[in-house]
Amino acid sequence: MTHRPTEGPLRPVRPHPAETPLSGSAPDAVDVDPAVLSALLRRHGWQRRGGAPGRYGRWTPPGPGGSGTSLLVPESRAFPDSDDLLGEALLALSRSGTPSAREVLVSLAVPSDEIRWWHDVPAGPAGAASWTVEDRLRGAARRMLLAAALATRARAGYHGARHRRSAAAALRHVLVGSAADGRLTAFVPVAGGRPLAVRLHQALFAAREAIDYQRATGGMDAFDAAVEAGVSHELTESLVALVRGTEGARIAVAWDPAAGVPEGCAPSAEPVEFSPGDLAALREAGARYLREEPAVPVRITGAVVRLRRSGPRGDGTVRLRVLSGADVPNVRITLDEEAYRIAGHAHLVGLPVRVQGRLESRGGFRRLTGAHGVVPVQVDDAERDRLMKELHENLDFFEEACGGDCGD
User: How far apart are CA 363 and CA 361, in angstroms?
Assistant: First the structure.
C-alpha cells in the first residue's frame, strides 16, 4: 500500500501583535490583576530585585543592562497606592522597547496559554541564525499546532484530510511572536483554544514516553497507546521536522496564570526534550500510523464536481465535494457504468448524490472504495441554484469528462 503525502500548505497563524507598534496606551489598571502581572513578568524573564515585602516588588527586565530599568508592581490592591503603582507599571511597559515587555502586555490583553519551541542549532556569524533555520522552526511549530488541533477532533493514528478544515480554523486566533535566538512562542487564547494546548501538552509527554520505551525495549506498543493522548502520524512528522538538522529541541506549555492549571495537567511542567537520537523511533512510528489506520465505512452526500472516463462507455471516476457524512472536503470514487451515468445526470440538473463505501487511508482518506447505492438527493432551491452555478463555471471540463455521452 502506498500513501501520498497529505501535508498541503497550512493556513498561517496570525502574527503576534507584539511584532507591530503598540497604540501607545497602556491597559487599564482596573482590568489587571497584580498577581497575574507578576506571574507574567516572571515567565518572560523579568527578575524581582527587592521591594517592600507584602506590598510591592521591584522588577527588572531580562538581559544585560536590565538593572537600569525597573517596575514597581503591587502584590495586591490592599493598599491605597496600589492602583497608582499598577498604572505606572503598565505605562512603563507600554513605553519600553524590551520585546518581553510587549509580550507581557499582549498576554494581559489576550489571556493565553503559551507554547514555546526551542531548537539548538550552530549559530552563524555574530550569533545570527540563517533564514532557513528560522523558517524550519516556524514550519514545524505550525505543523505541531495543526496536529494538536486534529487530535482535539478525533483520536487517530493518521488523520489525513479528515477534520483538516475545522482544525485549521481553530488556529486562526493563535498569536505567534517573532522567532529569535532559536526560540518561538505561540499564544493560544484560553477562550476556545485551551483544549488544543491541553492536547498538545499530553501528546508531547506521551510521545516522549513512547520513544523511551522503544529505545529501551525495541517495541512499538507504547505508540499504539499514545494515540489516545493525541499522538499521531502528523505529530511525529512535526517532531521530525523540528529536530532534524539540529542538536536537539524542546517544547513547553505554560498555562495562563489567570485561568489556572487545567485538570489533569502539571502546574509548571519542564520542557519536553527531543534529540536527533529520537528520529529513528519517530519515523518508524509515523510510518506505522500511516500503514495501520483502518478504512472507515461511510455514507456520503456530495456534489459532483468532476467526472472522467477514458471512453463513451464503461467505468468512470467521479469527484465529490462532500456535503455531509465524512469530515473531508473532497473524495474520489470509481463507479461502474450505471452509477457513473446517475452521477452525470445528477450533476447536469444540479443535484448532489448519496453513496456508500469505505473511506481509505491510502491517499489521505480522499478515496472511497466499494462504492454502491448511488442515488440523487433532493435539495432546496437555494442549494440547487448554487450547485448549478458551479456547474456552469466548470462546463467546459464537464463536457470533456462526459465525452459527448452524458445525455444518453
Answer: 6
Cell 440547487 -> residue? 384
Distance CA 75, CA 59 (A): 12
Instruction: Return the beta strands (E) in 133-271 as ranges.
Output: 175-176, 183-189, 249-254
Do the beta carbons of residue 297 and residue 76 sit within 8 Å? no
**Whether the predicted pLDDT of 24 surpasses 50:** no
Q: Do 263 and 235 form a contact (C-beta atoms < 8 A)?
A: no
Condensed to tens digits (0 to 9), the pLDDT of residues 264-305 reads 888 876 899 999 999 999 999 999 999 999 999 999 999 999
Mapping DSSP onto H, E and C, the string for 314-325 reads: CCEEEEEEEEEC
- The residues, any chain, with a CB within 8 Å of residue 253's CB and separated by 6 or more, are 113, 114, 115, 116, 197, 200, 201, 204, 269
Dihedral angle sign, alpha carbons of residues 310, 311, 312, 313: negative
How do beta strands 330-335 and 367-376 pair?
parallel
d(C-alpha 87, C-alpha 89), whole Å: 5
Q: Band the pLDDT of 183: cuts 50, 70, 90.
A: confident
Determine the pLDDT at residue 398. 41
In this prediction, residue 196 has a pLDDT band, given cuts at 50, 70 and 90, of very high
Three-class DSSP category at 149: helix
Collapsed DSSP state (helix, strand, coil) of residue 47: strand
Q: How far apart are CA 242 and CA 239, in angstroms?
A: 5
Structural domains in the chain, CATH included, are 17-109 (no CATH), 112-292 (no CATH), 296-402 (2.40.50.590)
CB hemisphere CA count around 17 (13 angstroms): 16
Q: Which of 310, 396, 391 is nearest to 346 (CA)?
A: 391
pLDDT of residue 181 exceeding 80, the answer is no
C-alpha cell at 258: 489567570
Q: Tally helices (H) and strands (E) across the chain.
A: 12, 14
CA distance 185 to 230: 21
Output the DSSP codes for 176-210.
Answer: E---BTTEEEEEEEHHHHHHHHHHHHHHHHHHHHH
pLDDT over 60 at 81, yes or no: yes
| DSSP 3-state of 296 | strand
Centre a 10 Å sphere on the Cβ of residue 15 and count the other Cβ atoms it contains.
12
Rg of the chain's alpha carbons, rounded to an integer?
Answer: 27
